[in-house]
Amino acid sequence: MTSDIASPAIAEPALVMITADEGGQRLDRVLAVRLPGFSRSRIKVLILSGHVSQDGRTLGDPGQPVKPGDRIAILVPEPVAAEPEGEAMDLAIVFEDAHLIVIDKPAGLVVHPAAGHSGGTLVNALIAHCGESLSGIGGVKRPGIVHRLDKETSGLLVVAKTDIAHRALADQFAAHGLDGRLRRAYLALAWGVPEKSQARIEARIGRSPSNRTRMAVVKGEAGRHAVTHVSVLTTYGGAAGIAPLVSQLRLELETGRTHQIRVHLAHIGHPLLGDPVYGQGFKASARRLNAGAQSALEELGRQALHAMELGFEHPATGKSLHFISALPADMARLVAALAGQSGSPIATEPIKSKSNKR
Fold first, then answer.
1. Active-site residue list
2. Is the dihedral of CA 52, 54, 58, 64 positive or negative?
3. pLDDT value of position 212
């Protein structure tokens, strides 16, 4: 028997009668199955905070075994207000329904409040935009962040509005597309050209031992497994007999580590254009660009990285959603200027702007 309760807030206690098949199982496991609108972590919090009882006796141990015939009462309080305050700001909304919202994030926007960024973040904007449609992530009226983009990386980002959507999307992102549900791709401009047009970078990533504010490729247990797939789309510059100056790359992640693309490309000697942290030491290459490209690169003022493609399975309907974001104006200007470099660029299909279901 499965409860049909899926609301994140229950005004009256919900009663769950333990069946013979459920006897001996953990309390939090049984309730997570019987209350499909709640994640197991949320159920655990409800138990530990005294909102689960049996015959008037509070049950405080999420791991305690249940017995057939037990009548378990669950009282779910209304979600509390989010700690970050909502801040109205313009958002490029690609898709939105009761379960989730897809945003085309501009460069310069921080995703989540943190030290030095207590306000003016995407989370602040989503709290203001979504209002009461945020039914509660873990008991708090806040958007559920399942993946992030660096402050200066532009592109597509999906955010959950409900606890169950957050749990389902997080599961897809944890699999990183290996089960076929998730698809993510980035467009980048990098210095030089990788040796192979199709390459797989596998190198562990961790905190740099010489600078703890940076990530780096590290050996052994100090780093986490990381894999990036690289495809060369186009090359720019370089006269006859001279290697091209810049390559346009398509990148797909098999893992999701902090600064993964930036660190992996720098590791193979082809860092992103404009990357102030991992792309230093290419001033001589920049001076070889034509005047228009030099100016566009200076105006870019950030790493040339855009999250252009995002596909995933809708957590409620099961339908596949697929979105593609056009290059933002700053990167588009740089690409146009690079296309005027000497040499013959490799033909490639243009990135089109669209948002559609598939």
1. 150
2. negative
3. 77
Higher model confidence: residue 172 or residue 13?
172
319, part of any domain: no
Please check whether residue 213 lies inside any domain of the structure.
no
β-bridge mates for residue 348, sequence order: none
CA 63 distance to own-chain centroid: 31
238-258, pLDDT tens digit by residue?
655 567 899 999 999 998 899
pTM over 0.85: no
Which residues constitute the domain of residue 51? 10-78
Residue with tokens 């009462």: 73
Give the separation between CA 293 and CA 298, rounded to whole angstroms.
Answer: 8
Average pLDDT for residues 6-16, to the nearest whole number?
61
Can you list the pairs that 212-216 forms with residues at least 24 positions away whose Cβ atoms lie under 8 Å? 214/259, 214/277, 214/278, 215/257, 215/258, 215/259, 215/262, 215/263, 216/263
**pLDDT tens, residue by residue, 33-66:** 888 767 777 788 788 878 898 988 899 898 999 9
97-133 residues labelled b (16+ CB within 10 A) or e (exposed): eebbbbbbbbbebbbebeeeeeeebbbbbbbebbeee
Looking at the fold, whether 152 and 187 belong to one and the same domain comes out as no
Same domain, 97 and 168: yes
Quote the percentage of the chain above a pLDDT of 70: 84
Work out how many domains the chain is built from and give that number: 3
Long-range contacts of 282-291 (CB under 8 A, 24+ apart): 282/191, 285/191, 285/192, 285/245, 288/237, 288/245, 289/237, 289/245, 289/246, 289/337, 289/338, 289/341, 290/337, 290/340, 290/341, 290/342
Amino acid at 295: S
